UniProtKB/TrEMBL annotation:
<feature type="domain" description="Flavodoxin-like">
    <location>
        <begin position="70"/>
        <end position="225"/>
    </location>
</feature>
<feature type="compositionally biased region" description="Polar residues">
    <location>
        <begin position="51"/>
        <end position="64"/>
    </location>
</feature>
<dbReference type="InterPro" id="IPR029039">
    <property type="entry name" value="Flavoprotein-like_sf"/>
</dbReference>
<dbReference type="InterPro" id="IPR008254">
    <property type="entry name" value="Flavodoxin/NO_synth"/>
</dbReference>
<feature type="compositionally biased region" description="Polar residues">
    <location>
        <begin position="18"/>
        <end position="31"/>
    </location>
</feature>
<feature type="region of interest" description="Disordered">
    <location>
        <begin position="1"/>
        <end position="64"/>
    </location>
</feature>
<protein>
    <submittedName>
        <fullName>Flavodoxin</fullName>
    </submittedName>
</protein>
<dbReference type="Pfam" id="PF12682">
    <property type="entry name" value="Flavodoxin_4"/>
</dbReference>
<dbReference type="GO" id="GO:0016651">
    <property type="term" value="F:oxidoreductase activity, acting on NAD(P)H"/>
</dbReference>
<dbReference type="GO" id="GO:0010181">
    <property type="term" value="F:FMN binding"/>
</dbReference>
């Protein structure tokens, strides 16, 4: 069962280390696409977001520990990728970190894709606004994102441009929510950023089915020999 987690931003002590934070587990957030048929879903074209990249009512998720050997790093606009990220983190006992950017995306999906296309063509990606911790402790990094225009969502591209050097030598496991067209070229894009990392096969789930993805997640973890 998918369980949604909301977390307050961790306090940072004088040494710059992230302290642990208490977590609140709640029921699934309000994600209008869940349960829609594929025809009703229509590749997400009419789905709106909260206009705050899923953080209108909560702080960005930040669950860090000193013991975990894996971390799920994700960006979510409408909540679908967030639900996948939470389930993967729970299944693998991984830390969890949500990316945010300096200018949130429009609630209208078509407008978001239009902006994303402009960002991709210009290479002018939005700045990441969270404090990214030292990723040295992690052997496996799960990267989650929506597919926009058959490509990697701009915030994840921005993260890889800024922090990809911290992922050298690690196992990278991509996963994505999509509108019915799979992973697009996103995995190849990630490989292009991370030439010295091991990038395994990606997991892709339609945005209207992310609350039914547990078996797909378990099979993906097993097929890629990822820690469970």
């Amino acid at each position: 069962m998918v369980v949604a987690c909301s977390a307050t931003r961790n306090a940072t002590d004088k040494g710059g280390e992230d302290s642990s934070t208490s977590q609140t587990k709640t029921t699934n957030p309000s994600i209008p696409q869940l349960g829609l048929s594929d025809d009703e879903w229509d590749s997400g074209r009419d789905m709106t977001s909260d206009g705050a990249d899923t953080n209108a009512n909560t702080e960005p998720t930040r669950q860090l520990s000193s013991e975990a050997s894996s971390i799920v790093i994700y960006f979510s606009r409408s909540g679908s990728t967030q639900l996948l990220a939470q389930e993967i983190a729970e299944t693998t006992s991984a830390d969890l970190l949500e990316l945010t950017v300096d200018e949130t995306y429009p609630s209208d999906y078509t407008e978001t894709v239009s902006r994303a296309n402009e960002e991709r063509e210009s290479g002018d990606y939005p700045a990441i606004t969270i404090d990214v911790p030292d990723l040295g402790q992690y052997d496996t990094v799960y990267l989650g994102y929506p597919i926009w225009g058959m490509s990697l969502a701009s915030p994840m591209a921005s993260f890889l441009e800024s922090y990809g050097s911290q992922l050298t030598g690690k196992t990278i496991a991509p996963f994505a929510s999509n509108g019915g067209y799979g992973l697009g070229g996103s995995v190849e894009q990630i490989k292009g950023y991370l030439l010295d990392s091991k990038v395994v096969n990606g997991l892709s789930v339609q945005g209207n089915n992310v609350d039914q993805a547990q078996t797909d997640i378990e099979n993906w973890l097993s097929d890629n020999n990822l820690t469970k």
